[in-house]
Amino acid sequence: MTQWIENPEGGRGRGPRGLARAWLEVLVRPHRFFRVGVSPGDQAPGLTFLMTVVLVAITSQYVFTPESFPSLPVSPLLAGTFWISLVVLLVAPLGLHLLSALQTLFLLVIVPNRAGISQTVQVLAYATAPCVVVGVPIPEIRVLACLYGAVLLIVGLRIVHETSIIRALLAGLVPALLLFGYGFGGMAALETLGVAIPW
Q1: pLDDT of residue 41
Q2: Where are the domains of the chain?
Q3: pTM
Q4: Nearest alpha-carbon partner for 152 in 2, 10, 22, 13
């Protein structure tokens, strides 16, 4: 499932190594990654990627700030396993597909000739690459990670859907706000830093 497109005829490399390679590539060479690393009908690698990012982020959040999770009448280990599993196995996949549906609606209105829904799912998933660090209780790190994730989303939409940066920005603004502002906590981190949010 963790596939990587290096040679379109040979498919993607699988396993943790391929996943790590995709993560590094999308962070340092996003233009190349979105050109060759996203293919039609191939959502499984993107979903696996997102779930891995969420796993790292939510686990570190539980380790550093367990009080941010509702308490359960069980041992801390069992409670952590429950909350982490719930977020990784249920919330992340469901959120990705709901957000992809919303993103598709914006693309329908703004981008006349666009790629398919599966590519949109992958762009949203891979754009979360910087968010592996959002579980660290340093609001500056969370803000930077979420901002970079939003930039990656706009870049990915532009490249994959072959549109202008303005159209990509208009199409991706609301999904980026929902995913990175609220999903990964960028807005809360800004408020912690004392930045006034106008809404």
Answers
A1: 76
A2: 30-192
A3: 0.89
A4: 22
